[in-house]
Write a structure and sequence with these properties.
Number of helices: 7
Structural class: alpha+beta
Radius of gyration: 17 Å
Shape: globular
Strand content: 15-25%
Distance between the termini: 43 Å
Strand order of the largest sheet: 1-2
Order of helices and strands: EEHHHEEHHHH
């Protein structure tokens, strides 16, 4: 999504700071924004913009604001800024409530696997990450396609969470 000037809008225009003090997302005001090289953040209040400018690393959504469950597999997937979680002071955004639920089954695994490729992806963009089959990203060559691996993980975690034997 882009604004009227063609700048990418992060989190579909939602305020990344609002999740912290309010505990819920809020749509940002396009006139209260911070423009960064990768896109513009909108804020619901000028106070939130000031907080962001003082500590951007604290309030920036993790992994570029892309879906946390996809980031764990080095896949760029769009996100829904109304489906989010703050873990260890970090804002993670999900694709929907189901993704948020699956992501919470093993939250630390998701964070660890998304953090691993992120430093190299951050500067070059997600398209630079070819994902699976790249030992440099920590994924085995036998992992298959990213989608197949994601579906296998999601199925396994769903089974584990619903199995009466576990």
């Amino acid at each position: 999504m882009s604004d009227g000037a063609g700048r990418p809008v992060v989190l579909l225009g939602h305020d990344p700071v609002a999740c912290f003090p309010r505990g819920r997302p809020a749509r940002g005001d396009p006139s209260i924004r911070v423009d960064l090289p990768y896109g513009s953040h909108g804020f619901a209040r000028a106070e939130h913009r000031t907080m962001f400018e003082r500590e951007p690393a604290r309030y920036e959504p993790q992994h570029g604001g892309f879906r946390a469950s996809g980031a764990a597999f080095a896949i760029e997937l769009g996100s829904d800024p109304t489906s989010w979680a703050i873990r260890e002071g970090r804002l993670s955004v999900f694709g929907d409530v189901l993704g948020q639920t699956v992501g919470s089954l093993d939250a630390q695994w998701n964070v660890d696997h998304a953090d691993r490729p992120w430093p190299s992806i951050r500067e070059r963009g997600w398209r630079a990450a070819e994902g699976f089959g790249q030992p440099a990203l920590g994924y085995p060559r036998s992992a298959g396609t990213p989608v197949a691996y994601f579906l296998a993980f999601a199925s396994a975690t769903a089974f584990a969470s619903s199995s009466p034997l576990l």
